[in-house]
Design brief:
The chain is α/β, with parallel strands linked by helices. The protein has a single domain, classed as Rossmann fold (3-Layer(aba) Sandwich), CATH 3.40.50.300. The protein contains seven helices and five strands. The protein has a five-stranded parallel sheet, with helices on both faces. It is globular and about 50 Å long.
């Protein structure tokens, strides 16, 4: 068991696919399994680490590479890192994979597979409505590309299964890979 090996769960998917929601549900479960966990949410990172960047391809890449750099620092120190950022470009995600794996940690791409139509129907932040009203342009998945992963380690049918099932899907993978213990140490004695 490599419970203290650091790893990066790289959540990727369109805006509204459920990356933040799933990371918020998964993090406490990993902590209950004895893992040190940090969540690098795309919105929070943009505000605190990438403030001033726009949404050009270069700025998006810079933002995602910064997230990858921080994730790598944490993972190589034994932390389980969850990133929740659209990260629309495959080449940039792959660059982060090379960085993390080059330092000896695991990089696990988790694709929250939801269509633009599904995300637009949710539109929790009202962003798709702004795009349709002409108030926003260069929006990933609508008028700017999103390059879906070709071979993610985990694919989550976002919105088509309960959040608990998505958490279990990820836990099953991590358990099979020896990255988390199969059962929490605090588990109550069975009756």
């Amino acid at each position: 068991m490599t419970d203290q090996q650091g790893f990066v769960l790289w959540f990727t998917g369109l805006s509204g696919a459920g990356k933040s929601t799933l990371s918020e549900a998964l993090a406490p479960v990993l902590r209950a399994r004895g893992r040190r966990v940090e969540v690098l949410d795309g919105d929070t990172v943009r505000t605190n680490l990438s403030n001033g960047l726009g949404f050009s391809r270069e700025d998006r890449d810079t933002n995602i590479l910064r997230i990858g750099f921080v994730a790598n620092l944490l993972a190589r120190n034994g932390v389980a890192v969850i990133t929740a950022a659209i990260s629309p470009y495959r080449a940039t995600r792959d660059a982060n994979r090379r960085l993390v794996e080059g330092d000896g940690s695991r990089f696990i791409e988790v694709y929250l597979a939801a269509t633009v139509e599904e995300c637009e129907a949710r539109d929790v932040k009202g962003l798709y409505a702004e795009v349709r009203a002409g108030k926003r342009s260069g929006f990933t998945g609508v008028d700017d590309p999103y390059e879906a992963p070709e071979h993610p380690e985990i694919s989550v049918p976002s919105g088509r299964e309960p959040i608990e099932a998505s958490v279990q899907r990820i836990l099953a993978y991590l358990e099979a890979e020896g990255l988390v213990s199969p059962r929490p140490e605090y588990a109550a004695v069975q009756r």
